[in-house]
UniProtKB/TrEMBL annotation:
InterPro entries: Carb_Metab_HTH_regulators, DeoR-like_C, DeoR_HTH, NagB/RpiA_transferase-like, WH-like_DNA-bd_sf, WH_DNA-bd_sf
GO MF annotation list: DNA-binding transcription factor activity
Domain spans labelled HTH deoR-type: 5-60
Name used for this protein in its record: DeoR family transcriptional regulator
SUPFAM superfamilies per record: NagB/RpiA/CoA transferase-like, Winged helix' DNA-binding domain
Alphabetical UniProt keywords: Repressor, Transcription, Transcription regulation
Length: 268
């Protein structure tokens, strides 16, 4: 399918794969063409299922394969940082918790720096690197094969290890969230670990930015109704908002919190 697109469209696709997303405004400036021309390019790439359209641009189409981990770190980075800080505030001192793989769950780990007496169990080597020097935190890393693409410890050994614990909180991510509330991911081995984490926690915190509502992935992790908290930057879906209320899932919109803080600071 790639041989049917123009050279500019191939370059756009390469940029999207590198950065995770592209914007109409930036592409128009880069290629010195009109925004209308870029929109036409993006629409054709989306029609070919190479990209998925989002407001103001596009992301790599995600039906069967995820965007690279480094690219995901760059996508919605500020939003993920705010989500991480908001989720960390839900976790008290002296708690036990799982943290699974994901760029947003990493931001939660980063925001736990001021906590004391935490027991953190993770299958995420990036989280372990962030936390292992913390003097007031105990860290346990699941054993098993390491996925080279992102440092995730996956497989049956990791599942068996996690099943030995019952913790206070689970911090999980998802690659996509369907409009019916289904949480989705790409790797069935990672999903098995995520399921074990959900099943062995008293409270489950999902951290995911709003772009996850615009993506798709093939493997079911679970459902919104299994959560206790959903921490996001914003939730534009009325259906998912109603679902959170119906299933008593506490919705935390970190973007709204950040806006409130900015308004308060400006008033002062």
């Amino acid at each position: 399918m790639i041989d049917q697109v123009s050279q500019r469209q191939q370059d756009i696709l390469a940029l999207a794969r590198l950065h995770g997303r592209v914007s109409v405004e930036e592409l128009a400036a880069r290629f010195e063409v009109t925004p209308q021309t870029i929109r036409k390019d993006l629409n054709e790439l989306c029609d070919s299922r190479l990209l998925s359209r989002i407001h103001g641009g596009a992301v790599v189409a995600s039906g069967v394969e995820n965007v690279s981990y480094e690219a995901r770190r760059l996508v919605a980075h500020g939003e993920k940082r705010a989500i991480g800080e908001a989720a960390a505030r839900l976790i008290p001192n002296s708690a036990s918790l799982f943290i699974n793989i994901g760029t947003t769950t990493e931001e939660v780990a980063r925001a736990l720096g001021d906590h004391e007496d935490l027991l953190v169990i993770t299958n995420n080597l990036n989280v372990a690197t962030l936390l292992y020097r913390h003097p007031k935190m105990s860290l346990i890393v699941a054993g098993g094969p390491v996925r080279r693409a992102d440092g995730a410890v996956i497989g049956s050994a990791a599942v068996d290890f996690i099943n030995q614990f019952k913790v206070d909180y689970a911090v999980i991510g998802a690659s996509a969230i369907d409009e019916d509330g289904t949480l989705l991911d790409f790797d069935y081995r990672e999903v098995r670990v995520a399921r074990a984490i959900i099943d062995n926690a008293r409270r489950v915190i999902l951290v995911a930015d709003k772009l996850k509502l615009e993506r798709s992935a093939p493997i079911r992790v679970g459902h919104l109704r299994e959560l206790d908290y959903f921490v996001t930057d914003a939730l534009p879906s009325g259906a998912l908002r109603e679902m959170c209320a119906a299933h008593r899932v506490e919705l935390v919109e970190a973007g709204a919190e950040a806006g409130a803080h900015e308004t308060s600071d400006a008033a002062e």
